[in-house]
Sequence to fold (187 residues):
Amino acid sequence: MNRAEMKRWLLSPSVTGYRALLWCLLAVAIPATFRISVDELVTGVAVTPFFPSVLLAAIFMGARYAAVVTIASATIADAFFIGPPLELFEGPSDLIALGIFLFASAMIIAFVQLVRVLLTDANQPERTPWSKGSIVFSLEKGQAWAGWHGERSRVRLGPQEEVAEMMEDFLAQVELGKYLNSKARRG
Fold:
């Protein structure tokens, strides 16, 4: 994976809607299945297999779905791997293990969100007081875009050739308006 792909994934989660719910289910089921498979061999790692799922959900699906994965993982871990099976919050072990898991998961999600914000801000033009609110035109893959200094949103105007022609026509109309206004004032 190269830096451009990682940056694209971090800037906008690629899985949303019903597909994201399916991936949330898998993000909980896969580590739970793994934990069940090693249940006879290990103890004390009830929530550990769920951490990678929280991270991947935060990267690929965003904070909301990562929170869903976190809560579902904590519930599954408590119900099956901490204390007696199918009993929730039966003792201090549950509260401590789940508290640490929820805190660490929140930190993971917050870190991914922070990286998103930093990458987004790094891709924005430098904000200067004199240019705040001014329109900036740009080209990307043959398409003309309009954006505003200090804002993150952009508007696609259309193909470069069409937009250039419309802009020339607009500028000609402005000049004609100036000329006719100056004649009307004189005459």
Observations:
- The chain has two domains: 3-123, 135-186.
- Strands lie at 135-140, 143-148, 154-159.
